């Protein structure tokens, strides 16, 4: 190896070492939600219910999102959710529905088969919003419960804005969105059981 090649190799090695030394650690955040086990009725439909969640592309990946204006959204390279928000919402809804002791079978899928009830969630926001004076956790989603015949039994739009207290990282965001999602799931599990009970009682 000649002197020129050796010097080039040393320069590349130094650059790589500096880059590695200054690269921040990747932090992974998760939700922390617990549901009370309750019974909302004796009816246990034989027809399973399927959860279908769709979202904008950035909510189907694990990187955390921070909005600084209605026009600007930043994807945080070194701060991630444990799973993509669309996946976390589906899993939390499944847990919430199981907690009421109402359904025999709850599935998460992209396609609804014949004779299945379906809960369709359109997740629109799951992010931090920074204003001049404060930061907020924002959760927005639309819900439709469809019968096996395709009749809409229940519709609602949920929108939560939780003020975040100061934090050096995104722990406050994870806590705030956990609280917001818990409120939504508590209401949604009760409404779902009620709507299906009314439908099944008419058979």
TrEMBL record:
InterPro entries per record: ABC_trans_aux
Keywords assigned by UniProt, alphabetized: Signal
Residue span, ABC-type transport auxiliary lipoprotein component domain: 52-187
Signal peptide start and end residues: 1-21
Domain of life of the source: Bacteria
Gene3D superfamilies for this protein: ABC-type transport auxiliary lipoprotein component (3.40.50.10610)
Protein name in UniProt: ABC transporter
